[in-house]
TrEMBL record:
It comes from Aspergillus mulundensis. This is Uncharacterized protein. Residues 1-43 are annotated as: Disordered. Keywords: ANK repeat, Repeat. One of its GO terms (cellular component) is cytoplasm.
């Protein structure tokens, strides 16, 4: 993330709400909270339309660059051309040129001194063009997928157009978020071009947005607007587009754990879309918080999953659960009792994966809780085979110190439970291991 001194004065850096003592946040300690944003102050000018300015509107509508240049040059010679006059559709000449997607005309008007923020940003201003206009010409261009026009507004406004402009009245939406969520009808390649353009010119990928997420959270959760989601769902757009956007955001210093209470990993797992490609990308980052330390440090009534593994299992994303187990040796395989969840959901492959590929990290408590679940589940031969396998793994991995009274007592409790629920096969397995280990 760039230094605070390089950001517009309307933003301030704040400490992340994750627990600072935990080392995983050393590279992700802050995000940017937007404060109420106002366009740069401009001298007050009249918006009255006079006879000398009327030809300018006609030239813009007729796309007559020669006439536009002549009229603007006459202004420097003293002609009373009012660049802020409201004419067609109550728009200024610059607003009209933007609505018509005329980058060259916009460039001429900006060089002549047109105000890129001629009215308050926030309210929706109705026009017969059918375009959604909230006072931000940049966001209008982005919504429509007009990349060249967006670049013209940024590069020819003498720094007046702010790529991080924000209006809290409109759910903390930034131009970057608008590009990612793609409310218009532009194809995915246009979205990628707009994201690249904004990042190139200083868009902050760590600005806290709607839904308590950053731009990275938007991208990984497929919150890309109806057109892109439909295209991906129909197979008309490669899922690589989302991956490219995530790659660009991370390269621009997007924090992979911010905000701590709703990190991008959580958004990606929660997504209704296939996010395995971006999950693979996130899981390659050493500092990614797979154990949801930041989420569980938060306060509030929301029920929080114990870890990313438990989260994936609770919503039935077994492919993601397997990916987490394969990729992350730092994953806590005991918190939230994932082994018991796998048993309860009948995910035998995942049960085997947990027992065989977690480097002996499963605790005695995890085995005991999972065995209780398996015994009570009573799902025929397969379930009872898992009881036998877990008993063998648990006892085999137990230390010499735990092979005494405590382990025997726990096995006795399992035997009693098996009798109570009428699982005679499981009961016989437990009795066998008690005899084998302690008789």
């Amino acid at each position: 993330m760039s230094n605070a001194s390089s950001k517009p004065p309307s933003y301030r850096e704040v400490e992340n709400d994750g627990p600072p003592p935990f080392s995983i946040f050393d590279e992700s300690r802050s995000y940017t909270i937007p404060t109420p944003w106002q366009p740069p102050e401009q001298p007050l000018t009249s918006t009255k339309l006079n006879d000398a300015t009327l030809p300018l509107f006609d030239a813009i509508q007729g796309i007559n660059l020669t006439a536009i240049t002549t009229i603007l040059n006459s202004r420097t010679a003293g002609a009373p051309i009012n660049l802020e006059a409201r004419g067609f559709e109550d728009l200024t000449p610059l607003e009209l040129a933007v609505h018509l997607n005329k980058p060259r005309t916009v460039q001429l008007l900006l060089h002549a001194g047109s105000n890129p923020y001629p009215r308050p940003v926030g309210p929706i201003y109705p026009t017969s063009t059918g375009l959604t206009y909230d006072g931000s010409l940049l966001r209008l261009a982005i919504r429509q997928g007009w990349t060249e026009l967006a670049e013209t507004l940024i590069t020819h406004s003498e720094g007046l157009v702010d790529v991080n402009e924000n209006d809290p009245r409109r759910a903390n939406s930034s131009p970057l978020a608008t590009a990612i969520t793609g409310a218009g009808v532009h194809p995915p390649r246009i979205t990628l071009a707009l994201v690249a353009l904004l990042l190139k010119h200083g868009a902050d990928p760590n600005l806290l947005l709607f839904g308590n997420m950053t731009a990275l959270g938007c991208a990984v959760s497929c919150a890309m607007g109806q057109s892109m989601r439909s295209a991906i769902a129909k197979g008309t757009a490669e899922d690589d587009t989302r991956g490219d956007i995530v790659r660009k955001l991370i390269a621009a210093d997007a924090h992979v754990n911010a905000p701590a209470t709703n990190p991008p990993l959580h958004s990606a797992i929660s997504s209704i879309f296939d996010t395995r490609a971006v999950l693979d990308m996130l899981l390659r980052k050493p500092m990614i918080d797979v154990n949801y330390t930041g989420i569980n440090a938060g306060n509030g009534p929301i029920e929080r999953p114990a870890t990313a593994l438990v989260h994936a299992m609770q919503i039935g994303r077994w492919d993601v659960a397997a990916m987490l187990l394969e990729r992350r040796g730092d994953l806590d395989v005991n918190e939230g009792n994932p082994l018991a969840i796998a048993i309860e959901k009948g995910q035998i492959v995942l049960v085997n994966h947990l027992m065989e590929n977690t480097g002996g990290r499963l605790s005695g408590t995890s085995y005991r809780v999972a065995l209780e679940a398996a015994i009570q589940r009573k799902k025929g031969v397969t379930g009872n085979v898992m009881v036998h396998a877990m008993l063998r793994e648990w006892i085999t991995r137990a230390t010499e110190g735990s092979r005494g009274g405590k382990l025997e007592q726990e096995l006795d409790r399992l035997k009693v439970l098996a009798r109570e629920v009428g699982n005679q096969v499981a009961c016989s397995y437990v009795r066998y291991w008690i005899w084998k280990c302690f008789k």
